[in-house]
Task: inverse folding
């Protein structure tokens, strides 16, 4: 990823654009041959020239001309700096997107493997951080797989949004270049020519790309936070791999902290901030000002490189995640059967009780369970009003974990995990 954003790669694309434009303009064959044979650049020389010109494209063109000689008069004819810069930037963004798309596919493969391994391992589902009803760890991973499937689709769409070039001149009117030149250059670079442009490609495209990157980062944040919660001492159903020789605290030798997931949560904030900066770049003066350029030199390399790192890191976290089914089982049983309260509620309404009355009966026994050593089932069996509607056998049947696992296979099919 870092190589994509080097000056070497940028200038290589610039040179390719200039040569393709010469090719499309059908300059004299002899001059075109000279340009193709001699055209090259030196990064350090460009930087040296730029110290004088204070203009990167002119410095680049001057450096290339030093190698080409008189035939260089054909280079950049009719073009403006942004024809080269924005079209090259589109190539760089698509190159970066391809890496990120590959990262997402690898992440989903690892998540799918985890989902299948723990498909039927029951654990407590939590809402508001409080025990709700049973799920499985496999379902949790299937949910993650599905979410990153949407992330993949968004990134593929965003790649298409930015895969657009322009070779249309100083204000986008093709005054000194035929549109066929633009078509030829863009086609050779794997881009679409912009239907209309000003001096630049409009920055809503770039904002879309960075907003998508930020949203993928939000999903990373969401799952890193999930794993952080699961590693809390009171929960400890899963935790980050802790390598031999690793240290958790300078003061407390016992510590095993979820530092990698915490790092991912922090970096997601940077992606969101960069997305906001990209949105600020959309509103420019008339056919163009340069206020966006300095921002993009930071946010595009930083966001793509960060997301690449974050996806690879999350993939490693999931792959090496330590999972504790026995702890899941213990936590599942910790609320003494309260997780079956809805089953009891529904059973009572099916017996003819109003929902309000059934809710009252279930809740009063549930509240006793929170504060007592007895189980929820024991309190129900001692409640005369409940037992007037249900038999002991019917009550026992309601505390069946299998009810909550009946649709797991169907759900896996829906999300595409085989």
Result:
């Amino acid at each position: 990823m870092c190589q994509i954003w080097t000056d070497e790669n940028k200038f290589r694309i610039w040179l390719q654009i200039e040569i393709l434009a010469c090719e499309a303009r059908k300059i004299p064959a002899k001059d075109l041959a000279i340009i193709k044979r001699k055209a090259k650049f030196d990064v350090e020389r460009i930087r040296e020239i730029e110290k004088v010109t204070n203009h990167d494209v002119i410095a680049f063109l001057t450096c290339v001309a030093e190698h080409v000689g008189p035939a260089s008069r054909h280079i950049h004819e009719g073009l403006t700096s942004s024809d080269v810069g924005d079209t090259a930037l589109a190539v760089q963004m698509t190159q970066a997107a391809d890496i990120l798309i590959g990262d997402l596919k690898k992440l989903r493969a690892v998540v799918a493997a985890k989902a299948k391994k723990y498909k039927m391992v029951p654990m407590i589902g939590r809402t508001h951080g409080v025990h709700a009803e049973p799920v499985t760890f496999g379902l949790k991973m299937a949910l993650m797989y599905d979410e990153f499937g949407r992330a993949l689709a968004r990134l593929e769409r965003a790649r298409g949004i930015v895969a657009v070039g322009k070779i249309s001149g100083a204000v986008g009117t093709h005054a000194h270049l035929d549109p066929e030149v633009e078509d030829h250059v863009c086609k050779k670079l794997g881009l679409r020519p912009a239907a209309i442009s000003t001096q630049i490609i409009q920055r809503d495209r770039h904002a879309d790309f960075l907003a998508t990157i930020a949203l993928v980062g939000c999903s990373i944040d969401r799952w890193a936070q999930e794993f952080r919660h699961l590693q809390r001492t009171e929960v400890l159903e899963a935790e980050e791999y802790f390598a031999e020789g690793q240290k958790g605290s300078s003061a407390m030798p016992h510590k095993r902290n979820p530092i990698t997931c915490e790092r991912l949560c922090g970096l997601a904030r940077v992606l969101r901030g960069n997305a906001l900066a990209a949105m600020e770049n959309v509103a420019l003066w008339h056919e163009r000002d340069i206020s966006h350029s300095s921002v993009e030199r930071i946010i595009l390399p930083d966001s793509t490189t960060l997301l690449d790192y974050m996806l690879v890191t999350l993939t490693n976290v999931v792959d090496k995640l330590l999972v504790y089914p026995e702890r899941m089982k213990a936590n599942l049983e910790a609320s003494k059967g309260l997780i079956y309260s809805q089953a009891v509620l529904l059973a009572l309404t099916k017996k003819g009780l109003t929902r309000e009355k059934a809710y009252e009966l279930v809740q009063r026994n549930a509240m006793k369970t929170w504060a007592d050593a007895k189980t929820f089932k024991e309190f129900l069996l001692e409640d005369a009003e409940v037992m007037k509607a249900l038999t002991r056998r019917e009550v026992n049947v309601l505390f069946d974990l299998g009810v909550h696992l009946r649709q797991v296979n169907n759900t896996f099919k829906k999300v595409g995990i085989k």
The chain has a mean pLDDT of 97.
